[in-house]
């Protein structure tokens, strides 16, 4: 099982500059791993010296690490943290070497770094039933100054956004997002204006009311108030029509924002626009369990739970998808869920193998790989 590279960098330029593809939605067509511009094994750049020696990735054509994991020790140099509970969210810190990792079911937030044991930062009270728990994590837009972190969590009463500060209990920022028997998960991102983007599930409701916070893409300030530039200045709602969102990703160069969604009959990728979400820009009729995503210079990478892989598609300057998609990292690390980009451009992924997968002794894990440029026709 060869590993390959992915794509991305996370920041949003929203508010009128995002455009929806003019062509109809595309469906998934698998391309063999290793083909196309992202072929070959994933590569990690020369690492900062670590307390423990690193084993380099195997040569092209060689499957997996040289040795299997032994307990929580994983010889794969791309594995950053091991023996976690299923990973619900990841936020990489400004140094690009450490990250905060949220465990969906336990509500624990851990600081992880290669070569070090995970360090507990906080434990959030969560209710993980109905797909909920801790499913979103993002740094404050002014993290270097305030050291604040925002999380999307499910409680016994609702789904909500909370703010974390060192040594303090979590503080509610936006509460009252409906929770139900299903579709309680959500996702977080930050746009370039410093507003929080919040994707909410429909809580099992077929058609949430227009004024409900369920099944929406919300845009709020760091105090939980409607962000400036929303369609309705008094409402946090930017877009409507979500069911069970898995992740939000933004392309800083293109000014396009994307959200993955799991529906009853198919999984989809939407380009985010104000108002009702248009027809999906991409469809997966086989419902692979789309989760977190990243976007950079037209390349969108989507973590998939069931095929245990990363799905990569590319678009042109008008956000129209071109060429054939690629399925990479297939069955390399198991079920992929959380995905985010570090400040240095490296792609961080989290696994959920303990939730219905076939975990190895070092699961669940956080992995870091180096994406390649979108390349060729994808540049402006």
Summarize the structure.
The chain is mostly beta strands and 380 residues long. It has one helix at residues 143-146; strands at residues 26-27, 79-81, 87-92, 98-103, 108-113, 119-123, 134-139, 149-154, 159-164, 171-177, 186-190, 196-200, 216-220, 237-240, 245-251, 256-262, 267-271, 275-276, 282-284, 290-296, 299-304, 309-315, 321-328, 336-341, 347-351, 366-369. The chain contains one helix and 26 strands.
Dominant shape = globular
Taking all Cα atoms into account, the compactness measure Rg is 19 Å
Mean pLDDT, as a whole number?
84
Proportion of residues in extended strands: 35-45%
Largest sheet: 5 strands, mixed
- Helix/strand-derived category reads mainly beta
Q: What's the N-to-C terminus distance? A: 34 Å
- Helical fraction equals under 10%
DSSP summary, beta strand count: 26
Low-confidence residue ranges = 1-24, 28-65, 373-380
Order of helices and strands: EEEEEEEHEEEEEEEEEEEEEEEEEEE
Strand order, sheet with most strands:
1-19-17-16-15
Helix count equals 1
Describe the protein:
- With 380 residues, this protein is an all-beta fold.
- Helices cover 1% and strands 37% of the residues.
- It has one helix and 26 strands.
- A five-stranded mixed beta sheet has the order 1-19-17-16-15, with no helix packed on it. A five-stranded mixed beta sheet has the order 11-12-13-14-18, with no helix packed on it. Strands 2-26-25-24 form a four-stranded antiparallel beta sheet, with no helix packed on it.
- The longest helix is centred in the middle third of the chain and has 4 residues.
- The relative contact order is 0.20.
- The N terminus and C terminus are likely disordered.
- It comes from Pseudonocardia adelaidensis.
- Keywords: Signal.
- It holds the Pfam family GSDH.
- InterPro entries: 6-blade_b-propeller_TolB-like, Glc/Sorbosone_DH, Quinoprot_gluc/sorb_DH_b-prop.
